[in-house]
Design goal:
Blueprint (H helix, E strand, L loop, with lengths): L1 H11 L4 H10 L1 E5 L4 E3 L7 E7 L2 E6 L5 E7 L4 E2 L14 E4 L3 E7 L3 H7 L1 H27 L2 H11 L3 H4 L2 H7 L4 H13 L1
Antiparallel strand pairs: 1-8, 2-7, 3-6, 3-8, 4-5, 4-7
Length: 192
């Protein structure tokens, strides 16, 4: 696990090996079982996460009780809510482990202390946020402009492993379609 984090820090910072090792000694790495809830819709988040291994699903439940999957976080993706500016700081989504997962767990209360101690961590975090935000913008624009079949084909190119990692009904929700529609699209593509 440490090798993955060292590689990641080496790519995004110029921290020395000693500094990287010191950071590894200070961060918290935890294993979570499939089904573990990291953040519950309505709770005020106190933690942020970085996926070393596994898959975390982000979903929300609307007023009528319907579930909508909005994202899946997999290896080398950060999970953080940026709602500090809101009056109601409660999470609008639930984050649950879709697989057994190994995550870096960050405490939002001590985050600034780590940034003060290791200034490049703040820069690394900014780079991660910028990359993530860019991907969200790109994915949202593509989602709006594409058909369900185009969304599925895009998923096959960009995130092919998700198909075998998450249940079809969750994947369908993420792609903005019913499980039946997803089945028809997959069947049609298999026949081509």
């Amino acid at each position: 696990m440490n090798d993955i984090l060292l590689d990641y820090m080496s790519r995004l910072t110029s921290l020395s090996i000693e500094q990287q090792e010191a950071i590894l000694n200070e961060i918290q790495i935890e294993e979570f079982n499939k089904g573990s809830v990291l953040i519950q819709q309505g709770d005020i988040p106190t933690k942020c996460f970085f996926v070393i291994r596994g898959c975390v699903r982000q979903y929300s439940i609307d007023m009528s009780g319907r579930e909508f999957t909005s994202n899946f976080y997999t290896e080398e993706q950060a999970i953080a809510l940026f709602n500090h500016h809101k009056i109601d700081k409660a999470s609008e989504c639930t984050f649950v482990c879709a697989e057994d997962s190994v995550l870096v767990v960050g405490d939002l209360m001590t985050e600034q202390d780590m940034y003060s101690k290791y200034t490049q961590l703040e820069s690394m975090t900014r780079q991660m946020i910028e990359q993530s935000f860019s991907e969200v913008q790109e994915n949202f624009a593509a989602f709006i402009a594409s058909s369900p079949e185009e969304r599925f084909k895009s998923l096959l190119v960009k995130r092919p492993t998700l198909i075998d990692r998450v249940p079809q009904h969750q994947l369908a929700s993420y792609l903005g379609m019913t499980p039946e529609s997803l089945s028809r699209i997959k069947k049609r593509m298999d026949q081509e």
